[in-house]
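Side project, low priority. Logging it here so it doesn't get lost.
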Amino acid sequence: MQAKDELVEQIGETYGYVTNLFDKKMEEYKLAAAEKSALTASKLITAIVMTILLVIMASFGLIALAFYLGGDMNNTAWGFAMVALIMLLLMIIVYLLR
């Protein structure tokens, strides 16, 4: 009877160890998933902010170029038209080379 009691006790301890190990592994997977999602979100937010800043910088650069060309031609409208034409040509080239 004592051997049976010891066996039941050992099975209970083993079950407790397995349950504890399972809980630890689940916690580890949850933490790994949280870390990966936080890293992905961080990269996404950084990419969005950088894209917005790039668009703003390009816009100001194109406006400055338009005013510069307009000053050289003594007609600001022609400067903006030249920049628009350059952008149209770039768009056509990108479309053809896709």
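Brief comment: The chain is about 95% helix and 0% strand.
Revisit when time allows.
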